[in-house]
Each structure stands twice: as structure tokens, then as C-alpha cells.
Amino acid sequence: EVSTDDPEMAFCTLANREELNPEEDSVHHCLYQFTRNETLTETNKLLCDVCTQRHFGPKNNISEKKCVYTNAKKQMLISLAPLILTLHLKRFQQAGFNLQKVNRHIKFPEVIDLAPFCTAKCKNVAEGNTKVLYSLYGVVEHSGTMRSGHYTAYVKMRAMNSHLSDLVLRGQSQASETELVKGQWFHISDTHVQPVSVSKVLSSQAYLLFYERLL
């Protein structure tokens, strides 16, 4: 299906990506790399129905060999900002014929802005908004190797808030940043639970990150 949208708008984001300059070994850098603009050339060229019909006439008369491939641009962007954002970090890599675990620390923020990774026409972002903020509320960490290990979790506990609960149940995301960021972090390992600082959480080797939307 040929899109009639302005092709230049297809690669526009809610916030300027060029000003990011993300630090390596960070979630921002991972997102930046995942959503980067790619050029498809040579063996990766895109089959273009419009170009093919322009050269060989109606589609019904075109054989499989009569196809026109063209250079193209490809970019993965977020078109619908979720209420709950789950980021799964790939913590393994190929080492010869074996898989080995990636143990290096990946930096992640307590509040993250997804606007540089969202399409300019993001479906559930109000017109004029240039921020899509999320607050961290859970982290899963794995210790050990690819063959064995142990999972633990960091979870933020907040005081009960009926107003916030109503917003979540109705699928709305208008809670204030203060309501969602405040809270006490706990480290959970099997039956052991103990309070920890935010700095302890942010220094963990995250495997799964859970964020909830602020704006």
C-alpha cells in the first residue's frame, strides 16, 4: 500500500534526535541505535510496486522477473506511547559456537523521555507536546551465568492513592510527575525484602526495566 503522507514527515520525531548525543552503554544509546535511520541499498533494496508498474504496465501483466527494486529509507519509531513501558535488555552475545552473558553495566534513568523516539504523529500524544515522560518503578536483575543464576527485583512502593488508581483503571495518563516519582525502593530476593536507595537501584545490572507514563 502506497502512503500518501508527506515522505519527509515519516522520519520526523516529537523531539529533536540530533541534540541527544547519548552516552554509550546507556538505555538512551540503545534506543537511539534501535530507532536510527537506515538506508536500504544493493541486496537490501525495496521492491517498489509503483516503479514496477511504471516500467512494465499493470500488475497483472508483470512476471516475477519483471520487478523493480529501489533504494529506500527505513526507520523504526514508536507510533503509540504505552501506559506501561517494558524494556528488555539483550544480555547475551555469540562467542564462537557458544553464547556468553553480557555483564557490563547499562545506565538507565529514573525518568526517561521517549519523545526523540516517537513519530511526530504519535497517536496518543496531545498536539504540541514535545515530551513523553516515564517513571521507573521496577527492575529485574540476573546474577550468574547463561547456564545458571538467580533473579532478584527492585520495586518502588508508593502510598495508596485512589485518584492515581482511577486514572490507571480508566487508561488515562494525567497523573502528576510528583505522584509517580515519589516512593520507597525495595530489593526483593526470594523471601528477603529490604529497603534500598535510588542510587543502589540505578547501579544494578538491569535485565528488565519497567516504566509508567507520566505525560
Structural class: alpha+beta
Poorly predicted runs are none
> Considering DSSP H and I runs of 4 or more, what fraction of the residues is helical?
10-25%
**What would you say the CATH architecture of one domain is?**
Alpha-Beta Complex
How many distinct beta strands? 13
In short:
By secondary structure, the protein is an alpha+beta fold.
Present the secondary structure layout:
Elements: H1 27-34, E1 38-40, E2 46-47, H2 49-56, E3 69-70, E4 72-74, E5 84-88, E6 92-95, E7 98-101, E8 111-113, E9 133-144, E10 149-157, H3 162-169, H4 177-181, E11 184-189, E12 192-196, H5 198-202, E13 206-213
Antiparallel strand pairs: 1-4, 2-3, 5-13, 6-7, 8-9, 9-10, 9-13, 10-11, 11-12
Description:
- This protein has 215 residues and is α+β, with helices and mostly antiparallel strands.
- It has a domain at 78-170 and 179-214: Cysteine proteinases (Cathepsin B, Chain A), CATH 3.90.70.10.
- Helices cover 16% and strands 31% of the residues.
- The chain contains five helices and 13 strands.
- The chain has helices at residues 27-34, 49-56, 162-169, 177-181, 198-202, and strands at 38-40, 46-47, 69-70, 72-74, 84-88, 92-95, 98-101, 111-113, 133-144, 149-157, 184-189, 192-196, 206-213.
- Strands 5, 8, 9, 10, 11, 12 and 13 form a seven-stranded antiparallel β-sheet that branches. The protein has a two-stranded antiparallel sheet with strand order 1-4.
- Strand 6 (92-95) and strand 7 form a beta hairpin.
- The longest helix is centred in the first third of the chain and has 8 residues, at 27-34.
- The chain starts with 26 loop residues before the first helix and ends with a strand.
- The mean pLDDT is 83.
